[in-house]
Amino acid sequence: MTTIQEYRCEICGRITNDPDHWFVIQCCDAELTVHKWNSNAAGVSGARHFCGEAHAQVYISRWFESICSPPKPDFTTPTSLKSNAQNN
């Protein structure tokens, strides 16, 4: 008996059992890897599935924002005080 595996797109929720042209993303805090669809990559614990390039790009952009966002500026301290503090 053959088992049919279904996959769901992480962005739109589309479900398929024929994920041709889909992408798999494996990531952690410091690394993100994009794979053209293959069942080995798709089956890895924590793998994320995307129904196309556009939705994979959405996830990648969100990942960059969470990892690479610059610190928020400190608007409570006037610029002249900041530069004086850095020079001392």
Number of domains: 1
Count the beta strands: 5
Give the DSSP E fraction (strand runs of 2 or more residues): 15-25%
What series of H and E elements makes up the topology? Answer: EEEEHEHH
Poorly predicted segments: none
Give the integer mean of the pLDDT values.
85
Main β-sheet, in a few words?
A: 3 strands, antiparallel
Sequence of strands across the biggest β-sheet: 4-3-5
Rg (CA only): 21 Å
Helical amount: 25-40%
Work out the helix count: 3
Tell me the span between the first and last alpha carbons: 75 Å
What is the general shape?
A: elongated
Structural class: alpha+beta
Short description:
The protein has 88 residues and is α+β, with helices and mostly antiparallel strands. 33% of the residues lie in helices and 19% in strands. The chain has one domain (7-87).
Structural summary, described in words:
This protein has helices at 39-42, 53-68, 79-87; strands at 7-8, 15-16, 23-27, 32-36, 48-50. By secondary structure, the protein is an alpha+beta fold. It has one domain (7-87). The strands form 2 sheets. It has a 3-stranded antiparallel β-sheet, covered by helices on one side. A two-stranded antiparallel ribbon has the order 1-2. It is elongated, with a radius of gyration of 21 Å.
